[in-house]
Design brief:
Elements: H1 3-6, E1 9-10, E2 13-14, E3 23-27, E4 37-41, E5 49-50, H2 88-100, H3 142-152, H4 159-174
Parallel strand pairs: 1-2
Antiparallel strand pairs: 3-4, 4-5
Helix pairs in contact: 2-4, 3-4
Length: 179
């Protein structure tokens, strides 16, 4: 029996914060930001909420916490026509932040506890010392990787150049212009 079949994974039937399997799933009407399917922790000491993911979409089944997905998720910011991309100023600001963080990447929100008070709407794991995202505990966003891949060869396999070119194109597309 595979590990995936043994027990629910954090963020997919198991609480990503406390590990409880007392989880309820709710379908909500469309929001412009959070997904329509939400799971919530039944542990009274936790009460976390998150957007679940389908474990079948994990690219690397043996690394469920950090594996990227096979396809971008249903409400990925990098999906053409996404809520984020329909707001040119918001999208431009997001690309500026991506560039400012040294193009370290963009991380998937599926399976991450929701925090409406945080800057990005989620409680991503953070390094206890630096306060920066704990990259070893995060999954890269498939939509981001797909966007990056489209510019990889053209940039001479230079990560920073590829992200810069992809960001410029995304901002231009959101504004209705050509890069």
């Amino acid at each position: 029996m595979s590990r995936l079949a043994e027990k629910p994974l954090p963020g997919a039937g198991r609480c990503p914060r406390c590990g409880s399997t007392r989880v309820a799933r709710d379908e909500q009407s469309a929001t412009n930001f959070y997904g329509q399917t939400i799971e919530g922790c039944g542990n009274p000491a936790c009460r976390a909420f998150w957007e679940p993911y389908d474990p079948a979409q994990l690219l690397e089944k043996d690394l469920p916490r950090t594996s990227s997905f096979i396809e971008p998720c249903d409400n990925c910011a990098f999906r053409p026509g996404s809520f984020e991309q329909r707001q040119p100023e918001f999208w431009k600001d997001l690309m500026v932040k991506l560039k400012a963080n040294g193009h370290a990447g963009f991380f998937c929100h599926k399976g991450v506890p929701i925090n409406v008070d945080s800057e990005d709407g989620f409680d991503y794991p953070r390094d206890r010392v630096t306060g920066k995202p704990a990259i070893g505990k995060l999954r890269y966003c498939r939509g981001f990787l797909k966007m990056l891949g489209a510019h990889w060869a053209k940039s001479g396999n230079d990560f920073e150049k590829a992200v810069a070119a992809a960001s410029e194109e995304a901002v231009a597309n959101a504004a209705g212009g050509a890069p």
